[in-house]
Structure formats: structure tokens, C-alpha cells
Amino acid sequence: YQRNNLLDMPLVLSVPIFEGMPAHTKLPTSKSEEEYAPQQDPDPGTDPGTNPGTEPEKPVTYDYVSKLNLSLSSSYVSGFQVGTTVSKIAANVKAINSNATVTVKDSKGNAVANSAAIATGYVLSITDGAGTKTYTCVVYGDVDGDGVIAATDLLAVKRHILKTKTLSGAYAKAATITNNEIAATSLLAIKKHILGTAKISQK
After folding, report:
1. Least CB-packed of 6, 127, 134, 138 within 10 Å?
2. CB within 8 Å of 186: residues ≥ 6 apart
3. pTM of the predicted model, to two decimals?
């Protein structure tokens, strides 16, 4: 360096910077060589705060029908006492699962008021973390779907028997009160219920 007059020449040192290098370094030793091993980037598809070997927790499922003392046949749910309101059903569902929501719509898809009585043909939907369960309500004896058992239900059953206006779906099920058929026994059961001599069993 002296012969070539390099002693007083300023030197510029370039230190390469690589990804993953620590902010502070020291001379490596045999005990610390592993500190300088290349650092791998985490898998971009993996959340570093989660354990990739664990599955997400499954939501709790509830058997609302049995807990509400109702009966289920296909998609039809029955067992509502005549006059049971929408708000009462919603409160009972909330008592089972406070996170559940309840909606009730009539046969035309319109929302039903909380003060309204459950009627044949109403669609009950219960939504929780596991999804939505939908049922069609049946109140035995409430053949015309107005939530009460009255003379209009007698007329609906009579027309069905005479084949002038056939009942179907939930309304036919509501008229099938005894012997699994719509017959004179259905008329008799509704008449006795109206007169107060024998209440129709909501099964």
C-alpha cells in the first residue's frame, strides 16, 4: 500500500444486506453459527397465530322441536296450543339458545306480528350458528289457517268431504284429526271443540 501510495486513499466498503438479517450482529462462533441460518418466510396461506393442525370448532346444534315439546312430521311441526303467540314461541326458543333468532311468516311470505297466534300454514324459521331450520306449522282443527277453531273450519272440512274444495298441505293435515283421514269424525271433533265439550288434542 505504501509503494502504491494507497495509505491515504479513502476506502469505501460495501456490505450487502439480505432479507432476514438481524438488526444487530456479532462475529459468529461455533456455538452461534445457527443464528445465521437463513430465515424462511411463513406460509402466506397460514395465519401465524393459529395452529394449522387444529380444525375450527363446530357450532352447537339444538333440537328445538323436542325442547319446545312439539312434534315433527316431514317439514310439518305441530303441538302448538291454540292461541300460542309468536312472541311466546320466540321467547321459548331464546330460553334454549339466547343467540337464536325466530321469524314467522304467513302462507304468502308476509311477516307475522309478535302478538299474532300461531296458525296452520305459518312458516317458522329458527336461525343460529348451525344454520336455519324452517318448519310449516300445523294447528289441528284450524283448517282455514286463521289461528282459531271456529265454524269456518267446519265449512272447510265439509267442502273437502263433498269434494267442492279440496284441502292440501298443512291445511289437510290440520283436518286429519282422527283415524288419519278427513271424514265425518273431523267434523265431529271440530264441533265438540267449538261447543267446549272436548278439546282437540294438539299432538
Report:
1. 6
2. 157, 175, 176, 177, 178
3. 0.73
